[in-house]
Amino acid sequence: MNRVLQYFKSLTAGIYDRDYEFLKKFLTKRELEYFNRLPVYEKRHSLDVCYTLMDKYKVKDEELLKAALFHDIGKIKVKITPDKKAIAVLIKKIPPLARYLEKRLYFLQVYYNHAEYSGEICKEIGLSDKVIYIVKHHHDKNVKDEDVIKLQRADKEN
């Protein structure tokens, strides 16, 4: 059900003055330029993950908050619309089909591997090793790192 809500949220997503003010204060000019390459629905999602960490989990660690903002930045490699994202989620439920199509459809390759791509882009931006690590591992299973676990929780809630 969370994925269905996520889909409809993405269709009505917006970025507001409060968000721009936060981003301008929190990110460097270069970081903001990269963040702004995301489509509006991915920006909204990333901001919501960041706000959840700050408001619900009382996180103050700037590196973890930057990881929240950039955890899906790898998706800038290709346009993944909400419809394509829904297709990718459904296809992933059938692993042999997902493996087959991932080799043939670039948007699936990016979607399924966006954590790795996100880590590479974070390095390109000049973000810290800690941010890169959290971002690269935000979809790993059986994680021990507390920051990765916190990001996973907030990501799942949004």
UniProtKB/TrEMBL annotation:
Gene3D superfamilies: Hypothetical protein af1432 (1.10.3210.10). Residues 49-156 form the HD domain. This is HD domain-containing protein. It holds the Pfam family HD.
